[in-house]
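anyone else get weird line breaks when pasting these?? whatever heres mine. first is seq + tokens for prot A
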Amino acid sequence: MGFYGKPRSLMGRLLAEAQKGATALKVTTGLDWVAGDVLGFAPTAVQHLHSEEAIVQSYNAGTGDLVITSGLKFYHFGAATSDFKGADLRGEVFLLSRNVLIEGS
């Protein structure tokens, strides 16, 4: 039995606020996201159902510039803050698309 595949960058954070309708976003640098990857955006407001998915159009690992294929449905918080005793409240962005092959005997 074995697992095969390339390890991927599974999570990043928004580095700036993402307004409803936005397609150009600023996220963590150094990730390996590519065009066609599906991302999940965690809700950052009191509306706990405001999570959503988006498809990567382009991502620049050096600058953290992310472009998605369609506008966000909801606002996502991404500003740096020191108001909450070190808690990082910036929105989490998750890689949802994976290609894992599991072989059994």
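and prot B, same format (seq, then tokens)
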Amino acid sequence: MIREQKNTLRKFIKEQKKKISPKEKQRRSGIIWNKLEQDNTFRNACTLMIYWSMKDEVHTHDFIQKWHPSKQIILPVVNGNHLDLKIYAGPESMKKGQSFGILDLRA
């Protein structure tokens, strides 16, 4: 029952996200990151854990690029049934992963 509800909700959210244009997603992402950057916890953080976004998600690429020189960025990497955490070392450290074709960090 719960699994069915989760699948129904996932489908609904996926359809709702399709209705938002790439330009609008980029604009909304900027609002999120600007607000986060004003937060004292963020300002004081030395390490951030964030995901490398896909097309239909909050855009993270520019934010990661902006902050990786001054903060350690940790990205999750799917490894079979496990989630590994890797340190981001710049765009040259990324490769196309096996899960959903998402860029992830090289081993």
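btw re prot B: The chain has a mean pLDDT of 87. Residues 2-18 form the longest helix (17 residues).
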